[in-house]
Amino acid sequence: MAEKQYVYFFGEGSKDMRNLLGGKGANLSEMTNIGLPVPPGFTISTETCNLFYELGKKWPDGLWEQVESNLAKLEEKMEMKFNDKQNPLLVSVRSGAAVSMPGMMDTVLNLGLNDETVQALIKKTGNERFAWDAYRRFIQMFGNVVMGVEHEEFEHALQSMKNEKGVKYDTDLTASDLKELVSNFKAIVKKATGSDFPQDAREQLRMSINAVFDSWNNKRAISYRNLHDIPHNLGTAVNVQVMVFGNMGNHSGTGVAFTRNPSTGENKQYGEYLINAQGEDVVAGIRTPQTIDRLNDEMPEIYNQLMDIFKKLEVHYKDMQDLEFTFQEGKLFMLQTRTGKRTAASAVKIAVDMFEEGLIDKKTAVLRVEPAQLDQLLHKQLDPKAKSKADVIAKGLPASPGAAVGQVVFHAADAVREAEKGKSVILVRTETSPEDIEGMAVAQGILTARGGMTSHAAVVARGMGKCCVAGCEEIKVFEKKDYFTVGNKNIKKDDWVTLDGGTGEVFLGQMPVVDPEMSGNFGIYMEWVDQFRKIGVRTNADTPKDSEVARKFGAEGIGLCRTEHMFFESSRIKAVRKMIVARDEKARRDALMTLLPYQKQDFIEIFEVMEGLPVTIRLLDPPLHEFLPTSDADIVEIAKELDVEFDELKATVISLHEINPMMGHRGCRLPITYPEILEMQTRAIIEAAVELTKKGVAVKPEIMIPVVGILNEVKVLKEQIIKIADEIIRKNNVTLDYKVGTMIEVPRACLVADQIAGEAEFFSFGTNDLTQLTFGFSRDDSGKFLPGYIEKGILEKDPFATIDKAGVGELMKMGVSKGRSTRKDLKVGICGEHGGDPDSVEFCHRNGFDYVSCSPYRVPIARLAAAQAAIKDEVGEIFRDK
Ligand code: ADP
Ligand code: MG
Ligand code: MG
Fold this sequence. Notes:
Elements lengths: L6 E3 L8 H16 L7 E4 L1 H9 L8 H16 L2 E2 L5 E2 L1 E7 L10 E4 L5 H9 L2 H19 L4 H15 L9 H19 L7 H15 L3 H9 L8 E7 L10 E6 L11 E6 L5 H4 L5 E2 H7 L1 H18 L3 E8 L2 E9 L4 H13 L5 H6 L13 E2 L1 H6 L2 E4 L1 E4 L2 E7 L2 H9 L4 E5 L7 H6 L2 E4 L7 H9 L2 E4 L4 E4 L4 E4 L2 E4 L3 E5 L4 E4 L4 E2 L5 H13 L3 E5 L3 H9 L5 E5 L2 H4 L1 H12 L3 H25 L4 E5 L13 H11 L3 H11 L12 H5 L1 H20 L5 E6 L5 H22 L6 E6 L2 H5 L1 H4 L5 E4 L1 H9 L10 H6 L13 H18 L4 E4 L7 H9 L4 E4 L4 H17 L7
Parallel strand pairs: 3-4, 16-17, 17-18, 18-19, 26-27, 26-33, 27-28, 28-29, 29-30, 30-31, 31-32, 32-33
Antiparallel strand pairs: 1-2, 2-7, 5-6, 5-7, 8-9, 8-11, 9-10, 11-12, 13-25, 14-24, 15-19, 16-23, 20-21, 21-22, 23-24
Helix pairs in contact: 4-5, 5-7, 6-7, 11-12, 13-19, 19-35, 20-23, 22-23, 23-27, 24-25, 27-28, 34-35
The site of adenosine-5'-diphosphate has 16 residues, from strand 5, strand 7, strand 11 and strand 12.
């Protein structure tokens, strides 16, 4: 039997083989194939990594031999030899999974150097400084990444050397300084690990490959995968590639670039480079890099070649690329390309532009923006009026847009701790590193003193859709002492600051924010979205203001208008309480009638905003005790106000107390006991509708009965509703269409949906309660155990955020099909939190729902998710680089 292929030479793979070769490896092969200047190398597959774990962290038979034979190919191509004392071949060892995962193993460069090969390098290049710089970098990277020596230790030694020599930058150190540093570094390794720095190149290579495999399961990687919903069984590939050197002097350098602006989407390359530098120097913020435009002045040939390559890559990949390059003594090499991460604003603009440029079709454009990402565009911006008057204390790079207001913290762990207390925090650091990811995830915004637009902070913040001001060199951050300075100001932990990630401005204090606009590219894009969408999108809104926002965002009606909040306003709560403590029906009815004009006015305002669109109004849902006080002191006061005895009110409070309110006297059970409540609400709805109809405003009310589980509940209540409604309509002599339907949120309702549909004209799945009751999880208490369920993998996702397809989803499908078996044209929607969750929207699309309904700010997200679901039906699943 032929041995399995574990190793692929660059050019043997292609961009479609990312599952096997990882994103980096697949694209290195692809770039090789389309004739770009890529230093040769080979990729060990992700399968090999998985096999390594299956074998208890051992290499499969034959792997080393395959590595050796690929190494031999490299040697032949380069006319160099690995571990050679005359002409040593040096390589980089790079991890790379199928989805890009910052936070896995850092790359090791210059592998193959040792005390002998470094001499050969000196002889060969005649550049002693370069050779020692390469060697000290190698020990530093290998020592840290492979041997586990603290990064800090090397940095500290480097800094001491700079101090001792009185220089600012590493480039100012001489060959002999660097040589001395090499021996210092070796001593550090020896002290920290007890072992000598390995001198054999093959041993170095073997150890590095192991380290890459190991890094798949380091803490950072696991937490990143958890945060981004990436499966834990993909494995990582290992890329071994011939080194090219950006640190060979002033005609060498290294850079990173995006083919378009990742922050705004502008169709102009965006990048940075550093002369005489290697690897991560650009993103690590050791010196502030030059923008790529400068390269046109300094090295026009390289610049032009680079521009050609950018074009070629965009036409080839048909998407914005994020790439890495290095030039060695005037010769350009490409080291990486991948789909560039971008802000939502940039994603939308690039999709619109690429369609207009003819690079992609409209369907592809609609698939290009991740629905959840749109959230960023719907987020608030700093109020321009307040901004014009505010004092800017510092200005950095506008690394990721949006506004962020919060209290300053200096450590990721503090960010997590304070955020858990419900505080809004801004993470301020000199620069960020992968260890800070969790802190960044909970912060409102991120501010760093060093690093460019492609620094770690900037890239990660854009990925998270989080406001970030990077490279704000005017500030000095003292993390250990929890403060930063700017000019003569000291800003301490917990002080408030405001960031504008779109301009890079930093303000002291809390500034007001305003709603965004739905125009420009976003408007165009959302129009395209609606061309593909098959199901409707409504909103959950209880006020005219929310309804207006939602309509602006494209809501096609209200799917859930809760009426209880209308009872809580200070002017009304007294009447509500009077109704509750009423001794008889008459007193109850009197109290309710004082509420009628208020409710009616509420509906008039909402109907006006939603003119022409359906409005689903849910009858009073919560148990009555929620409207009453609980403490004796409050009871005294309210008894006085209501003019009843303390004991009497207290007795009412006690009698209304429920052991399990979620399953108590609520929903349709209330009007079954107290028909007056339903009568008042029906009256308010229909009178409001009639009044507007007379004025020529088109109104489409839909009255929804909550918590139904029994056919007769609907039957009895519907009869009452119709009696009252029709009488009002008849008296006023108008034509008004209204519907009566139910919320489906009790499992029994799904089981007998065919019966219920005999009465109900529409179903709206209340998936919050349906999830609670299906699992028997109380939403209010599940915080105690649900996170553990997710962590232990007992549940994959929080069922309150994403529909549990296997359980709740099955009930929903049953509800829909049974319902439609009785009433063919039964209108079906969903109004739980899930209505704005892209995955759940897709589920609703697939299962014949007429619409989803979600909070106003999620309406555009639901529209896009619905359109993508429809397109995916046609073209199949799409791959999205996370
Ligand atoms: P990451 O996934 O963190 O970007 P990379 O493997 O891309 O890590 O490498 C880190 C840095 O080292 C990048 O700047 C990359 O361009 C550089 N690099 C990687 N391989 C080589 C090589 N063979 N020659 C020169 N530079 C390299
Ligand atoms: Mg890279
Ligand atoms: Mg409910």
